[in-house]
Design a protein that fits this description.
Distance between the termini: 77 Å
Structural class: mainly alpha
Number of strands: 0
Length: about 270
Amino acid sequence: MEQKQIEVLQWWYGNRDYQTGVTLYAKLGKNRTLLNTFMKPGKERFLSSKLHYQVCKAVGLNFKKMPLLPEDVAVQNAANLEALKASGLGTNEITQAPYIPEKHIPFISDLKLMQYPRVIRRLKMEYQENYKNRSIMHKKMTEVPEVNSPENLQSRADYLKDIKAMSARMEYLYKFIQNFEDKGVVPAAEEVWPPNEEYVLPENITDLKKLKKNLQTNNTKDRNQLLYQQKTKDDKENPMPEGPKRSRIENRIKKNEETILIIDTKIVELEK
């Protein structure tokens, strides 16, 4: 029996929930149009049986005559779950890609987009960008090898963290879009995108220089993480692969560098 068939059987003889079924079809099925239909919100009640059929069909199983799940597989699976719990990285959260239903907002052309008020245009564009990026992350997560090595577990955890963050952001944006579609309410830009609180810097040169040094030290450690995957230098380079974790570190370095420039400017002003 193939591994992909075992995965389907584990779902079939488990709670057979709709969301996990959609995730399995995203990984194993070939019909992207059908996948998009399964992913539309509110379809669970109507498409549950069809999903069962399509997931089984994708791996060559007849959903009316499903074979039993081998006992040795079930035992091995339980042992794996215990090992994952002991690792501290979680179980279901990082061993399968999550299905988080998105609100359906059709992608629209630039010409049609210009017909909306500026704030609504920005809302729709940001929503669509998050949707696209989340789809990319979801695809990358399903491509992580099935072997539960520490590296693979961490990769899944990193992808999951970003997917959840994007989903939460989409949910937040959709509230404003829906209010506009239903009631014609155009929110103020400041309501949707509150201005960041100004970063309060120390007012004396000694503390400013201390803060600058700390930021430089943090950047050195982060750059080592990117180049060696550890906080200190090593004899041999081991670059961190592209992915959510690398992006977060790169963004942190960039933000620290911007703060260092602000600190330098303030030091010059205080030294006048």
